[in-house]
From TrEMBL:
Residues 11-195 form the Phosphoribulokinase/uridine kinase domain. This is Uridine kinase. PANTHER family: URIDINE KINASE (PTHR10285). Signal peptide: none annotated. Belongs to the uridine kinase family. It catalyses: uridine + ATP = UMP + ADP + H(+); cytidine + ATP = CMP + ADP + H(+). GO terms for cellular component: cytoplasm.
Length: 208
């Protein structure tokens, strides 16, 4: 593997919210030389809502594909594939919109993109060289999400439960679960499945 590879290899990791996508991406990243791999989150591509009031932002369905700027993400991945840098948005979950600043992403030999609806957009889906789906039971995801969203995303327990019932669970059933069929590999236990991570590591090293 060399750091001068021209065309980055794009790995997509999809699955339910709090299924363990980020942990899986982080664990794979730790297996490879730091300068060869980076992780991008689909969450950064939620639409900017700075023109809306906080009340209006709270009404948005964040588990519907229309809440994400997938065309921009796809264009950015295409530019990275061609060896160009991109200016990626930064997202703030506590205020449901993008931060004013952007971040420069430079191409690396391997780029992992993780997010719930990555495989729901055909053109975006077709951009990936390897597609992984983290398959975690929804009750486990809910327990993890309650903990994470109250601790890290500034949410109350009541708001997490209400959002889960109205949009998160229905969104998973309508838009995320059906995309499992597009995955090359379905991974139970996510970031703690060392057998699957060993296999992905071997595959990535062979593909670069
Ligand atoms: N296999 C696992 N076992 C136990 N906890 C896990 C596991 N995978 C993830 N977690 C924890 O669950 C929470 C959500 O995981 P995360 O990777 O952020 O999910 P996602 O990126 O799919 O939303 C985090 O606190 C993470 O540490
Ligand atoms: N302003 C927002 C934007 C998104 N969400 C929720 O985030 C989930 C996706 O992110 P994961 O890291 O959990 O994969 C998604 O289920 C949205 O409901 C939000 O609550 N607020």
């Amino acid at each position: 593997m060399t750091a001068t590879i021209q065309r980055p290899l794009l790995v997509g990791i999809a699955g339910a919210s709090a299924s363990g996508k980020s942990l899986l991406a982080k664990t794979i990243k730790q297996r490879l030389p730091i300068e060869h791999i980076q992780v991008i989150s689909e969450d950064s591509y939620y639409f900017d809502q700075s023109h809306l009031t906080m009340d209006e932002r709270e009404q948005t369905n964040y588990d519907h594909p229309n809440s994400m700027e997938h065309d921009l993400l796809q264009q950015h991945l295409e530019q990275l594939k061609q060896g160009n840098s991109v200016d990626a948005p930064c997202y703030d979950f506590t205020i449901h919109t993008r931060k004013p600043e952007t971040v420069v992403i430079n191409p690396t030999p391997i780029i992992i993109i993780e997010g719930i609806m990555l495989f729901s957009h055909k053109k975006l889906r077709d951009t990936f060289d390897l597609k992984l789906f983290v398959d975690t039971p929804l009750d486990i995801c809910l327990l993890r999400r309650i903990k994470r969203d109250t601790v890290e995303r500034g949410r109350s327990l009541e708001s997490v439960i209400e959002q889960y019932k109205t949009t998160v669970r229905p969104g998973y059933i309508s838009f995320i679960q059906p995309t499992k069929e597009y995955a090359d590999v379905i991974i139970p236990k996510g970031g703690k499945n060392t057998v699957a991570i060993d296999l992905v590591e071997t595959k990535l090293k062979a593909m670069c």
